[in-house]
Design a protein that fits this description.
The protein has 323 residues and is of the alpha+beta class. A hairpin with a 2-residue loop joins strand 11 and strand 12. It folds into 2 domains: 123 residues, 2-Layer Sandwich (D-amino Acid Aminotransferase, Chain A, domain 1); 155 residues, D-amino Acid Aminotransferase, subunit A, domain 2 (D-amino Acid Aminotransferase, Chain A, domain 2), CATH 3.20.10.10. Helix 2 crosses helix 3. Strands 8, 9, 10, 11, 12, 13, 14, 15 and 16 form a 9-stranded mixed beta sheet that branches. Strands 1, 2, 3, 4, 5, 6, 7 and 17 form an 8-stranded antiparallel beta sheet that branches. The chain is globular and about 50 Å long. The protein contains 7 helices and 17 strands. It binds pyridoxal-5'-phosphate. The site of pyridoxal-5'-phosphate has 14 residues, from helix 5 and strand 14.
Length: 323
């Protein structure tokens, strides 16, 4: 029978979500010394199966973020992947969901340092639909806030404290009536959106800011580069991007776990291309979702099925449940 209670993985155990609580003395709560990941799970009604998209890559990036913040763990990447899958099994969702693993400095002490402070880990999951509330193509501005620099708070780690930078920029954009904003680095070059990487289409190829542009090296970004090349013979150039290149792009789009592939049709009140979703963004967005939902067998190696067998069926799922 379906259990409606929702669980979290919290400091070594699976516990009811409402019991997964930390003290206000927790170092991460006081100083932002935590890292996290964001993973999507896609429900496939026909398969009666839930698929986690590129789970291992997310946990590998989590391990990189932990290195930056000197967070230590007894788990291997594979063991932690299995914890995520087990949590999803226990929560029994049959709808698209979002998974938030975290690792945090759990010492109960005052004093800003990364030394001598124990690490704890948690995972929670919630039902999750469209990030931009169904807006099919975005109107954005270039933010007056600048992206955190690698020598301030490294953006290549998903460091909790750094998301204050994102929140400041996003809040201003939304208050001004825009869907989101593009943030520049201190040197004036394009970095990324608020929780999304950005791609330009120009003369039939893709351009995206390079890994040293204070971006999070997105897993969706990597996926889109791979798909563009292998499916559509479209090359991606990773390089410095000027603000004015945004205005003259043929197409623009964001990529991210939450945002998936979302076209942008206006920047700074200037129309991009012909103001409609462009052909390259459109076909990549469609293909991406089909792949995530398990509809394209050639990409099943990117998916981890949650249920050992399709829900309500006796036959074994085609793919191994092990990540
Ligand atoms: C700051 C930032 N940039 C980019 C991304 C996109 O990364 P991914 O595609 O791995 O979700 C995210 C989301 O995780 C993010 O938080």
């Amino acid at each position: 029978m379906e259990d409606s209670k929702k669980y979290a993985f919290f400091e070594g155990d699976f516990v009811p979500l409402e019991d997964a609580k930390v003290s206000i003395m927790t170092h991460a709560f006081m100083y932002g010394t935590a890292i996290f990941e964001g993973i999507r799970a896609y429900w496939n009604e026909a398969h009666q199966q839930m698929y986690l998209f590129r789970l291992r890559e997310h946990i590998e990036r989590m391990w990189d973020s932990m290195k930056i913040l000197q967070l230590e763990t007894k788990y291997s990447v594979d063991e932690f992947c299995e914890i995520v899958v087990e949590l999803m099994r226990r929560n029994q969702y049959k709808t698209d969901s979002y998974i938030r693993p975290s690792a945090y400095k759990a010492g109960l002490k005052i004093g800003v340092t990364l030394e001598d402070c124990p690490t704890e880990m948690s995972v929670l999951s919630v039902p999750f639909g469209s990030y931009f509330k169904g807006v099919p193509a975005l109107k954005v501005i270039v933010s007056s806030w600048r992206r955190v620099e690698d020598n301030a708070i490294p953006a290549r780690g998903k460091i909790v404290g750094a998301y204050v930078n994102t929140a400041l920029a996003k809040a201003d954009a939304v208050r001004s009536g825009f869907d989101d904003c593009i943030v520049l680095s201190e040197d004036g070059h394009v970095s990324e959106g608020t929780g999304m990487n950005i791609f330009l289409v120009k003369h039939g190829h893709l351009i995206t800011p390079c890994n040293t542009a204070n971006i999070l090296e997105g897993i969706t970004r990597r996926t889109v580069m791979e798909l563009a090349e292998s499916e559509y013979d479209v090359k991606t150039y990773c390089r410095e991007v000027d603000r004015s290149e945004l205005y003259i792009a043929d197409e623009l789009f964001y990529t991210g776990t939450a945002a998936q592939v979302t076209p942008i049709v206006e920047v700074d009140r200037r129309t991009i291309g012909d103001g409609k979703v462009g052909p390259i963004a459109g076909k990549i967005a469609e293909r991406y979702i089909a792949i995530c939902r398990g509809e394209v067998p050639a990409y099943h190696h990117w998916l981890t099925p949650v249920y050992k067998q399709a829900v309500g069926q006796k036959s074994q799922a085609k793919m191994s449940a092990k990540p």
